[in-house]
Design a protein that fits this description.
By secondary structure, the chain is an alpha+beta fold. It has a domain of 57 residues. The protein has 2 helices and 2 strands, in the order H-H-E-E. It has a two-stranded antiparallel ribbon. Strand 1 and strand 2 form a beta hairpin. Helix 1 packs across helix 2. The longest helix is centred in the N-terminal third of the chain and has 21 residues.
Length: 96
């Protein structure tokens, strides 16, 4: 992903209208997330606990099950504050 960061940034700019500098930052940010989570995959820790009958110990481990697909909605540009929080009348909001 870092090798093709410029391609991804340009694609984001063309698809969403995001400024190129901001898209580059977002690609770098996303690449760091991928790097961090891929390094976490090798650290599969377990914990010991006593079995319900009290005669033995159990080892509980967490193992990755594989890739997951997540679809999250977003909108660009992000507007803050949301329209429902803004005052509606011009005298109440001279900055609008």
């Amino acid at each position: 992903m870092t090798e093709r960061a410029e391609d991804f940034a340009l694609l984001m700019t063309l698809e969403m209208g995001k400024p190129l500098a901001e898209a580059r930052g977002e690609v770098t940010y996303g690449a760091e997330f991928l790097r961090w989570f891929s390094e976490e995959a090798v650290r599969a820790f377990g914990r010991y606990s006593v079995s319900p009958d009290g005669k033995s110990r159990l080892l509980v481990t967490k193992k990755p099950v594989g890739p997951c697909l997540l679809i999250t909605p977003w909108n660009f540009p992000w507007r803050w504050p949301p329209a429902r929080w803004r005052p509606r009348s011009p005298p109440a909001a001279p900055w609008c």
